[in-house]
Amino acid sequence: MAPGRRALGGLTTVAVVLALAVTGCGGGDSSAPGTASTGATDGAAAVDVEAQGNSPASDGGESSAQKGEPAANGKQASGEATGASGKKKHAPLQLPTGKPEEGATPEQIEAVPTADIAVTVPGGLTAANTCNGKELSPTVKWRNVPPDTAELALFVMPLKPVPGSSSPLYFDWAVAGIDPSLGELKAGEVPQGAVVGRNSAGKNAWDLCPQGSAPENYIFALYALPESLGPKAGFDPLELRKEATAASDNVGLYSVTF
Amino acid sequence: MRIKSMRVILAGVLATLALGSVFSASASAAPAWKFDGTTLSGEENIVGAAVSSGLTIPGLTTTCEHFLYNMEIENSGGTGEGEIVELPLFDCGTSSPYCTVEAIEAENLPWPTKLMTVSSKPYLFIEGIEVAILYGGEFCALGETWVPVRGTAGGSIDNTTESATFNSSTFAATGADLTVGAASIEWNGVFPTEAFEWHREDALSVG
Prior knowledge:
The complex is a heterodimer. Chain A is α+β, with helices and mostly antiparallel strands. Chain A has 2 domains: about 10-80, no CATH class; about 110-255, PEBP-like (Phosphatidylethanolamine-binding Protein, Alpha-Beta Complex), CATH 3.90.280. Chain A has helices spanning about 10-20, 35-40, 45-50, 65, 75-80, 105-110, 235-245, and strands at about 120, 140-145, 150-160, 175-180, 185, 195, 215-225, 250-255. Chain B is an alpha+beta fold. Chain B has 2 domains: about 1-30; about 30-205. Chain B contains 2 helices and 17 strands. Chain B has helices at about 1-25, 170-175; strands at about 35, 40, 45-50, 50-55, 60-75, 80-85, 90-95, 100-105, 110-120, 120-135, 145-160, 165, 180, 185, 185-190, 195, 205. In chain B, strands 4-5-6-9-10-11-12-15 form an 8-stranded antiparallel barrel. In chain B, strands 2-1-17 form a 3-stranded antiparallel sheet, with no helix packed on it. Chain B is elongated, with a radius of gyration of 21 Å.
């Protein structure tokens, strides 16, 4: 866009002003320019009404040329663009009643993933991966792991909690101490150096026993850890996940429906 | 003889290229922003609030009660383009009773936009999308996890309803792809469009 263009105020204010105009509370009709300004109790709102700049009377500063709009446009020069016809072509905007969603705090922004770890489970999950089959862990592949990653930790969880579980999160599999350079966990294998935590079925192993026949979504969360968390075989996945979440800004996610 | 044959082939290739460029130009004639049927000159602001919008990671749809946007538009070289400069989101939550939205952030705004035509239909294509969502919930498998959504989005523009619709079909038509890591995710939404400045009550169309 053209440099020097005057920025509008917050969109929230813009939307409020626009809705006021559309719903006939002033500001939207050139027959009553500045009504919203007059009625506005919020200084920002008044500024925004001016920022509409669609009425010569209400445009407090910028010329058409400054706006990048040709002065030869008769409609704008005459102010017709403000809806002098009185036609309301748009339904009023549905306005928020509250404040905008809490923006991220500076601390949270720092924690936004900087890498884009790509995790995949080629072939997804099949009956062979369940307790009704061979109960083999699936192949899990990854790429785009940050170069300063010391090791990886993988947690596999159903998206929905499992009723009756003693833990708020149910873990089908938890593996830590994974060498990032491997690029994959092969089906049914745990690489040398990696350790397996105690899953929610009480086993230090992969264990997938879906309840019922309805499809379930399983989350594969792969944390890139800048240093080892030193887990031992049979570690508590809930505790290690908390540590991993605190220690790592980068997690690769993959969801499999089975 | 050989040289003559090559000249004939070369001429044929050049003719084909010339014809091809003519046809491709007409086939890909870039659409422009129009108000009350008149091509926009200068700039305009479009603001809107989604009629509906949902971002779906398999098994989990994130929605915002109010999803606003502010897009600056202009026609450049006969082609409609613009930038999404603001994207405030209100009252966001998920389809799961266990997962909340702790924070949601549209990052690295502005996001460039452009109009395009696919199979004679106008589309709005958004590039550089970056949204980070922090989920919460003790019982949520994504709890305390930032989920970065990145990529592009393509939505079909309906001149009669003055709205842009984004769904899997419009993504496929435009080649758009929103991803979390290696996984494509869905974005469904309907966004009315409304000019805010000079053309506030003029009918917006694309063509």
